[in-house]
Every structure is written in structure tokens, then in C-alpha cells.
Amino acid sequence: MKVLGLIGSYRKSGNTEVLVKEALMEAQKLGAQVDVLRLTDLKIEPCKGCMACVFKQEECKIRDDWNIFRKKLDESDAVIIGAPTYLLGPAGIVKMIIDRNIAFQTRTLHGGSKPGAIIGVAGIKGWEPFTMALLNVFMFTCGIKVVDQAIFYAQGPGEILLDETAMERAKKLGKNVLQAANKPAEDQTYLGEQGVCPVCHQNLFSLKNGFLECALCQVKAKPEIINNKIRLSFDRESLKAHRWSEALFEKFFSAILDSGPRFLSQKDEIKKRAERYINFPHTI
Ligand SMILES: Cc1cc2nc3c(=O)[nH]c(=O)nc-3n(C[C@H](O)[C@H](O)[C@H](O)COP(=O)(O)O)c2cc1C
């Protein structure tokens, strides 16, 4: 089994790198072949929004290192991604790659059986609301099923090495991901912290028309207060048709595809109306 570790921090020997490598070392000890890719060493251009990958199923035209990432992903049987928190969410490289992963659309639709695990790192508890959520999006866009995830707290580079509980947790994560990779997809179970949402195990909910909705998977829940505590009753339909389910994801892509003919039929009018914006002076 090949386990790939992805490091989303620029800091060499920083907390993310140490934790990802600790998890990989454990997987290696248990018989895995391991490989590491520092995402911050890749030259990744932003998605240009041309949509040729979606509308024409073309390969991405951007010539940068995204294909190195893609190749490594293809060659792996399991993936561990780690990233530090920068301003409440994962460092920018994670979102840069998520955007480019739109070119994986078909894989995301039909994939989702390769197991993976997430390592989030933050300096201060409570200052990381979007870190794990976006790292889950990263995995969804790669078609990877998250079987374990954990958030770790440390500030100075490598400080996590002094936290034995954290280092043990990273080891366990490496073991969990390898064990999942050795099982058929239907037998792989989720081994991370449960969280509130039963689908993505995140605690990021918004209030919509009297329902709570998971920001990540759109699972709905009715809140009730029982003995001064909030209890959530999850809506069965939305549990089945969550954002990352094949049915809903297909609907999402057909909504994008439907926009093509509509746009083309109105293109000339849009171009005429856009002229005054094109002529507006730019700094660069
Ligand atoms: C630019 C920057 C922004 C940061 N923002 C946050 C933040 O919003 N919340 C937080 O908990 N930690 C924040 N941190 C702290 C890092 O998440 C923390 O130091 C982490 O251990 C870095 O991981 P690394 O050593 O793998 O790079 C920030 C660090 C930097 C450099």
C-alpha cells in the first residue's frame, strides 16, 4: 500500500510537517510504502475560470506543477493531508489546489473510495473555525473518503514534538489510514472524532428557516432544547442527499452545464453591456 503525505505548510520541520511525517512513519512501520509531497514547494497557478475542464472535458491548460500533485495522488492508495491554520482557515495553498481540482470533476463523481486522513494545525484553540472544514473540501475534491481527522495545537515550528499526546494521535492516524487502505471500501469505517454533523463530522452549522444546516454537506437538523441543551434531529432525506452524495453532486454539475447554452445565447448582449467596464482604467 502506498500512503502519500501532503504537507501544506511552507515552514520546514514545522508542526504540520512533523505530524504528517509521524503518521507516515507509523504507516511505514506497519508495512506501507510512503511518499511525501510538500505542496508549498509546488508552483501552483490560480484556476483561471475558463471552465474548459467542465464544459469540454479538456485537460487543464495551465502548465504548472498541479500535474505533479495529480500524478502523486493517482499513484497512492491512501492520502494524509496536513495544513496549518492561517487566519481562521487552512493556509492558502490548500484553497489554490481545491480550485484547480475542479478538473477532477468526474473522479469526484465516481470516486470516493480511496481512504485519507486530515491533520489540521492551529496556534490557538477557537481560532480555527474553517481549517478542518476546508481540508475536508480538499479531500472531497480529490475523491478521497476521510476515515480519520484531528486538529492539533502548537505555535512555534516543531513545538508539537513536546506534546506526547499529539504525537501519539498522529501515529494512530497513520495506523488508521493504512488499516482502512487494507480493507475494501464498504468495510472502511470512520475512526476520527464524531463532531456534530453525521456526514462530515464538522461543527459548522448555519441557521436557515428554523433549521440548522451543515455548511459543508447541507445536512439539515431541527434543533430542540431539552434540559437546557440543544438536541438535533437530523432530516433523513438530507442525510441521504447531502452535498457530496453522487445525486446532489451530479445536480450541481448539471446546473453548471445548463448555464453554458444560456450564456452563449446572451453572449453578444453581455459583451455590449460589458464594454464600459472593459474600458475602465486599471492600475496594472
Ligand atoms: C500568517 C499566519 C496566520 C496564522 N493565523 C492563525 C489563526 O488564525 N488561528 C490560529 O489558531 N493560528 C494561526 N496561526 C498559527 C499557526 O497555525 C501555528 O503556528 C501552526 O503551528 C503553524 O504550523 P506549521 O509549523 O506547520 O507551519 C497563524 C500563523 C501564521 C504564520
Question: How would the blueprint of this fold be written?
Answer:
Elements: E1 2-7, H1 15-29, E2 33-38, H2 52-55, H3 66-75, E3 78-86, E4 89-90, H4 92-100, H5 105-110, E5 114-122, H6 131-141, E6 144-153, H7 164-181, E7 205-208, E8 211-214, E9 220-226, E10 229-234, H8 236-240, H9 246-265, H10 267-278
Parallel strand pairs: 1-2, 1-3, 3-5, 5-6
Antiparallel strand pairs: 3-4, 7-8, 8-9, 9-10
Helix pairs in contact: 1-7, 4-6
The structure holds flavin mononucleotide.
Keywords:
284 residues; alpha/beta; Rossmann fold; 2 domains; six-stranded mixed beta sheet; four-stranded antiparallel beta sheet; binds flavin mononucleotide
CATH architectural arrangement of the largest domain? 3-Layer(aba) Sandwich
Main sheet record:
6 strands, mixed
Strand content: 15-25%
The ordered string of helix (H) and strand (E) elements is: EHEHHEEHHEHEHEEEEHHH
Note the gap between the termini.
49 Å
What is the mean predicted local confidence, pLDDT? 94
Stretches where pLDDT is under 50 for at least 5 consecutive residues are none
Give the CATH H-level superfamily of the largest domain: Flavodoxin domain
**Class from helix and strand fractions:** alpha/beta
Question: What share of the residues lie within helices?
Answer: 25-40%
Bound molecules: flavin mononucleotide
Textual characterization of the structure:
With 284 residues, this protein is an alpha/beta fold. It has 2 domains: 2-187, Flavodoxin domain (Rossmann fold); 205-278, no CATH class. It has 10 helices and 10 strands. The strands form 2 sheets. Strands 1, 2, 3, 4, 5 and 6 form a 6-stranded mixed β-sheet that branches. A hairpin with a 2-residue loop joins strand 7 (205-208) and strand 8. The longest helix has 20 residues, at 246-265. The protein is globular. Flavin mononucleotide binds next to helix 1, strand 3 and strand 5.
